């Protein structure tokens, strides 16, 4: 092979790899959207519990043998109780803020589709954990209609969450 053929082979290989990658990107965005929807109810519950823990921490201080404290203590380094308290507080606040950001993002995404006649197909499946048969009775429609419209709406959510990457 000469140099031009080598370059051509490399380009063809790169284009094929790009096509394979692009096929996975849309599927990955769809699946990631589903994971985020399934996680939303648990994340809401966790956020409430974390806020209660933070309130308790601010009121009573850290527990003496807490795992959240021991991870800030390193061999050979002596932290003052105030430094430990500040580190634990910062960590708790960061966790709550990250969870809150995810919840807000998903709630805004759900607002995008809330006026759709088949919105309940998404909420029923991912938030309320209902089988398609029960969702079909609520709408009312056939279970295949539930599945088809849920897929369509999750795809819209994926585009809203991931942009053009969800289309490739």
UniProtKB/TrEMBL annotation:
<protein>
    <submittedName>
        <fullName>Uncharacterized protein</fullName>
    </submittedName>
</protein>
């Amino acid at each position: 092979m000469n140099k031009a053929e080598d370059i051509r082979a490399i380009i063809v290989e790169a284009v094929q790899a790009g096509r394979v990658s692009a096929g996975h990107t849309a599927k990955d965005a769809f699946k990631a959207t589903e994971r985020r929807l399934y996680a939303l109810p648990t994340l809401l519950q966790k956020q409430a519990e974390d806020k209660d823990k933070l309130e308790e921490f601010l009121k009573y201080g850290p527990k003496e043998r807490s795992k959240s404290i021991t991870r800030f203590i390193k061999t050979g380094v002596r932290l003052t109780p105030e430094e430990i308290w500040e580190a634990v507080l910062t960590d708790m606040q960061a966790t709550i803020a990250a969870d809150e950001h995810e919840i807000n993002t998903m709630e805004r995404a759900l607002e995008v589709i809330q006026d759709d006649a088949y919105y309940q197909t998404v909420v029923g499946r991912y938030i309320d954990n209902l089988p398609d048969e029960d969702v079909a009775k609520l709408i009312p429609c056939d279970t295949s209609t539930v599945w088809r419209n849920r897929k369509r709406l999750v795809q819209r959510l994926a585009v809203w969450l991931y942009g053009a990457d969800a289309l490739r």
